[in-house]
Amino acid sequence: MNRRSFFALIALTPFLAGPVHASTAEAQQRLKTAVNEVLAVSNSVSSRSALAEKARPVLQKHISFETMTRRAVGVGWRQFSGDQQKKAVQLFTTLVIRTYSGKFTPGESATVNFKTALAPAAGRVDVPTDLIYKGSRYNVTYRMEQESGWRIVDVVIEGVSMVANYRAQLDASFKKGGATAVISSLEQSVSRP
């Protein structure tokens, strides 16, 4: 690279950083809105089942469950029929909402501290947070992608990706019996109390 090119690149750097900063700010604001809406729901209900029911539309607005399901299933997703994909998304959504709403006690306040958002790739933002709940602190990173607005596509809790965790389970089911086995596994998980 010659000197002129180098200085031209340096001169453009502030302009290149602008859109990335705007993207991270937009994604972080979207996440803050989602967290505040979920906390408001949590404070307005008295049971975990009510929390899951009332949080569902809020979470569906802010989380791309289709993307999460597709990534959790992995390469086998392409072998699912359209109906099987819809069924898998429906079951996975129910499982995730029920599992994670079951971790919280309605009315118990949680605090979420947002850290500086990162943009590891175009159209993707990672928002690290500290979740403080019942005296314990948890590192939670929300992975967001630009899908008709910023939406959550993965949640990494204490370094463990939710999508990768489910992928390990669903991949084993897929290897045993394809899409039918994955759907059956999800149905069994959802039917457990």
Automatic annotation (TrEMBL):
Secretion signal, residue range per the UniProt entry: 1-22
InterPro entries: MlaC/ttg2D (IPR008869), Tgt2/MlaC_sf (IPR042245)
Keywords: Signal
Superkingdom of origin: Bacteria
Gene3D superfamilies: Tgt2/MlaC (3.10.450.710)
Record-given protein name: Phospholipid transport system substrate-binding protein
Organism: Prosthecobacter fusiformis
